[in-house]
Amino acid sequence: MSGLAESKDWSDKIDALLRDMPLVPRMATILVTLRCNSHCFYCNFGRSDNTASELPADVVLRRIGQVRRAGIREVCFTGGEPLTWAPLVDVLTETSNQGMRATLLTNGTLLTGLRLRELISAGLGMVVISLDSLDPRTYREHRGLNIAPVLRALELLVEARERHEGFGFIATSVVTPETLGSAARFALELEARGVTVQFQPVHGHEPALSGPDPQVDANVESIVALVVPRGAVINHPEYLRHIPKFFETGRPPAGLPCLAGYLYLLIDLEGEVRICNRMESLGNADKDDLAAMLTGDLARTIRERMIRQECPGCWLLCSGQPVLERLSPYLSALHATWESHQGDRA
Fold first, then answer.
1. Statement: residue 95 has pLDDT above 80
2. Which strand ranges, in their side-by-side order, compose the sheet holding 283-284?
3. Could you give the C-alpha distances from 38 to 35, 51, 140, 178, in angstroms and in order?
4. When comparing pLDDT for 122 and 218, which is higher?
5. CA 172, 50, 272 angle in degrees (round to 5)?
6. 87/84 Cα distance (integer angstroms)
7. pLDDT of the residue at 207
8. 258 contacts 306 by C-beta, under 8 angstroms
9. Rounded CA gap, 220 and 271, in Å?
């Protein structure tokens, strides 16, 4: 491969970027339950045989203590559906008491006004709501649920954002080649409700396209040109522009390093610690020191493999967005490189 991604100038920029990356991420994601009331077509939680599996509060609190001692000050609670997890409010309260900011990743169907007030009072600072369509039939097809509680949850979140300083929320939407055509309209509909969205391509079903599809490319450009400048979508434009190619290859852009190993941390139900959920475990949070895991040889080796794309490959928000944001001064040249090195899309 020739051009920018192989040039010394490009290599120097990447090297400088990596030198400044922290070994301890800003946020830890903690999985608290496998139980989920949804049946999303791209997720196995709602169809799993062990959907009742969840953690007691004391185990989660011990893991949060590990996270804090490692120097991490933000925690994201996820599942499954974390709103099905009974100790959530108590654990949020303790997380806040330790001076840590808490985020909740939810489908929103169980988020009532009373529950949201309890969560915010306990210290919840951010909600990420997973939502792929505002059309009731499409929503039911994708998730097996009624959309009405979600629409009410959006209203409650908007009201809470206005009422509580420091509280925020965002929608995350998984797109397929079929739904890309309606993504711009979906984003504008959310904007009218006061909601900002970020898109991510479906994984686990790739390659979803057998070759370039001009209509898919045009659908993406409609998001970039009409939505991104308005602030209704917070994806980087180049992240969006690679989605069609990802649907063809299942791979990230050649020559682009993945920074998720520096920025991402997941502790799963068994306590296994990963800096990428597609890579091997660094160890167990219930047995090993988290800070030592993050700064150890295995973590360094995994990060190096991810930077070189010696990994399963993905185009998740944690892998694509961070590096693009940090390379913003060079993105016009980067876009030209992708166009020249990933084939003619016409």
1. yes
2. 197-201, 168-175, 124-130, 101-106, 74-78, 27-31, 266-267, 272-274, 283-284
3. 9, 11, 10, 21
4. 122
5. 70
6. 9
7. 56
8. yes
9. 38
Instruction: Please write the tens of the pLDDT for every residue from 175-188.
Output: 988 888 899 999 99
Of 29, 30, 36, the closest CA to residue 50 belongs to: 36
pTM of the model: 0.89
Instruction: Report the SS3 class of residue 281.
Output: coil
**C-alpha–C-alpha distance, residues 341 and 108, integer Å:** 41
CA gap 233, 54 in Å, rounded:
33
Instruction: Identify the bridge partners of residue 76 per DSSP, sorted by sequence position.
Output: 29, 103
Are 1 and 255 contacting, i.e. CB atoms less than 8 angstroms apart?
Answer: yes
- Residue 141's CB is within 10 A of a number of other CB atoms, namely 12
Residue 101 phi, psi (nearest 5): -90, 140
Q: Cα angle vertex 146, ends 144, 147, to 5°?
A: 115
Angle subtended at Cα 321 by Cα 173 and Cα 43, rounded to the nearest 5 degrees = 35
CA distance 131 to 141: 13
Residue 263 has what DSSP assignment?
A: H
What tokens does 307 get? 């930077």
Band of residue 210 on the pLDDT scale cut at 50, 70, 90 = low
Q: According to DSSP H, which parts of the chain are helical?
A: 8-19, 57-69, 88-97, 113-121, 136-143, 148-163, 183-192, 214-226, 237-249, 260-263, 290-295, 297-307, 317-326, 331-341
Cis peptide before 207 (omega within 30 of 0): yes
